[in-house]
Structure formats: structure tokens, C-alpha cells
Amino acid sequence: MSREWILHVDLDQFIAAVEILRNPELRGKPVVVGGSGDPAQPRTVAATATYEAREHGVHSGMPLRTALRRCPEAVFLPSDPPAYEAASERVMAVLREFPVRVEVWGWDEAFVGAATDDPEALAAELQQAVRARTELSCSVGIGDNKHQAKLASAFAKPAGIYRLTGDNWAEVMNDRPTDALWGIGARISKRLAALGLHTVAQLAAADPADLAGHFGPTNGPWYRYLALGKGEAEVVTTPWVARGHSRETTFPHDLTDRAEITRHVTELAERVARDAVAEGRQVIRVSVKVRFAPFLTRTRQSKLPAPTTDAGALSAAAVSVLGRFDLDRPVRLLGVAVDYTMPDT
DNA sequence: TCTGGGGTCCTAGGACCC
DNA sequence: TCTGGGGTCCTAGGACCC
User: Fold this and answer.
1) Mind listing the pLDDT tens digit for each residue in A31-76?
2) Which family, according to the similarity comment (predicted)?
3) CB A30 within 8 Å of CB A73
4) Do A143 and A152 form a contact (C-beta atoms < 8 A)?
5) Which of A140, A219, A232, A329 is the most buried (most CB within 10 A)?
6) Domain A1-165, CATH number (from 3.90.1170.20, 3.30.70.270, 3.90.550.10, 3.40.50.10860)
């Protein structure tokens, strides 16, 4: 008797795997990918590191200069988003050939909805097809909903299959810390711990009204739902409509000259305008982000009088918003973000 | 370890209006 | 008149995720 399952397909070491596919000599070596690939460049971090590099204490998010210190023999490669995008599309195309529903969740992940009486067999077929057609390895999690399937794929790594459902949720998850849940990070986990809620089981047993008082009417009760193993179970196959778009730059060295800062904001706004035109979207709000040295981030935003994609109008708006900052400290990052008008609203 | 870039969603507070 | 309450819009910031 077949029923609905949610599978989470997670490509293993995706970025590194794509790089190794292009250059097989990298296989088995410590490889670090990030930025322009120059480990001497300050303020650049690793997007990913292979297991061989991780053995030296290198991990994603680590500054490249630190990675170089820890693993001088590592191969440093520049990040190449178009290559990852192309590889990702090949994988998603393989998944779509099955009689399933596919919801793409970033470059290296997808949720798959399927009616089957043997989800493990389907998972194995997906893995084999992806490997045969793209030479990429993936892990597959099986669940009643996206939350369970997502956690399950992490337990399946590398290249495995794992089932996490209401049947084994408590047994597998109850004693884990709250940040094991998908949607609870270090900050919330710490605040929960301060309330005496350290484990998933403790959070599941907490009073929803109490949680609402501490974390808001939506978030508080939602954290408890996560701890109970609940989650979204609908696989949406229609393409995602982006809410907005942004461009930002961290400068290798701080900016102090006002004219130079204004010039960079103008350029970022023009890039965002080109992106909006390319995506065929109208802009309704413009935000400017300034990160001051050493690491203080501030944003200012402004709703436009009317939707537009005009580069001149967007840069003028961004520069006007920039004028509301006190630029009395060195600047390490500038960003321009826009919100799009949404169809049917 | 001196901390990227690109997203999404939620919350809180003030303005404004009735 | 010195003062209520609700609804909505806008802004700034925080948290999370890949």
C-alpha cells in the first residue's frame, strides 16, 4: 500500500566534488575553495574544504589566510558559481525524470515528494541515477515531512540513506541539543538553554504560551513544533519567485573617503538594477548596508514612490539612503539590496 | 578564526489615522 | 479637552539557512 514520502537529496561535498570532476588530479588532496582563490587575500573565507583539508582543522567559513596557515599544502581554488549552477541543473534534471515531485532547495539540495511503498528503494535508485549521469554522490534522507527528511540526509552522509519519521523521532532526536533542529541555531539554542530547555525532548514538552512570551507568537510555538518532529510536508514544484535581490562587497582594506564610498554604492545599485531588468522584476524598496570597522553592521532603507527598474533612479535612491548614515568610521563592507513587487499582491 | 555573499522570515516600535 | 484603543504602514534589526 503506497503512501506519500518526503525525500531530501543532498549532494556530498558538492562544490569540491564539481572541482574534482573538472580536475581529477585534485582527488585525495586537501582542497579549499573560496573567493578569488588567493589565500593571501584578507577578508576572504572558505566556501568549502575537502575531508583531507578538514583533517588539518580547515572548515568552511574559515578565513583563507588561516586555512593556509593550518594547511600550507592545500590547493586553493577560486569559487566558480556558474560551474556549480550548471552541475546543479544536471542533477535536478536527473531527479525530474523520475515519477516524483522535485522542489529545488539551493545548488546542492532538493526535496522529492513521492508515493511509494519502498522509499529506501526509490532513494537508492535516485542515488544510482545521479551517480551514473553526473558522477556526483548524494545522501538521501527519508521523512514524513521536510524537516525530518532534511535531518535524515545529514545522518545518511556520506552517500547513505536514512529514514527519520514519527516512529523513530523521539528515539533518535530526544537527547540531542536543540540546535540539532533545522531552524534553531546557536543564538536561539543558547536562549532556550537559559530557560532550562537544553534538549529536543525538553523543548517538545515546553509550554507553547511560555515560548510565545519569550520568542514571539509565531516563533515560540514553532520551535516546539520542530522539537516534536513536525514540519512542512508539501513539495512545491512551481519555480520560486524571489522576494528581492542584493549585491554586497567586503573591501580588502577599509574605505574612508566619502566620494569613494558614494561611488561604490552607485555601482552596486547599478548592478542590482541590471539584475532586476534581467529577471524582469520591478523594484519597490531600496536598502543600503554599511559594515563599519571592525564589524558593526547597520542598514537603512527607503520605499520608492513607484516601482521601477531604472538604474539612475535606483542609484539616486541608494545614494540618498546612504546620506542618512554617519560615515564617521572606516567602512569594510557596502551593500545594496532591493525588494521586488510581488505578483498578485 | 578578525569574521563572504546571497537569501528568507519575524519582531518591535513609531507614525499616522479613525 | 492632555487623553483610549485598534489597525496599518514603514523601518531597523535579528536569526536562520545554503
Assistant:
1) 999 999 999 999 999 999 999 999 999 999 999 999 999 999 999 9
2) Belongs to the DNA polymerase type-Y family.
3) yes
4) yes
5) A140
6) 3.30.70.270
Separation of A212 CA and B11 C1' (Å) = 12
pLDDT bin (cut points 50, 70, 90) of residue A92 is: very high
pLDDT in tens, A142-196: 999 999 999 999 999 999 999 999 999 999 999 999 999 999 999 999 999 999 9
Matching residue, cell 581529477: A24
Footprint of strand B on the protein (CB under 7 A): A 35, 42-45, 47, 60-63, 65-66, 215-220, 240, 242-250, 275, 294-295, 333, 335, 337
pLDDT tens figures, A251-281: 999 999 999 999 999 999 999 999 999 999 9
d(CA A3, CA A144): 10
CATH of region A170-227, choose from 2.60.120.560, 3.30.10.20, 1.20.1300.10, 1.10.150.20? 1.10.150.20
User: Is residue A5 classed exposed, middle or buried when 0-12, 13-18 and 19+ CB atoms within 10 A define those classes?
Assistant: buried
Nucleotide nearest to A216 (CA to C1'): B11
Give the separation between CA A10 and CA A1, rounded to whole angstroms. 27
pLDDT of A345 over the 60 cut: no
Q: Is the CB of A184 within 7 Å of strand C?
A: yes
> What's the confidence (pLDDT) of residue A2?
87
What is the set of active-site residues of A? Answer: 109
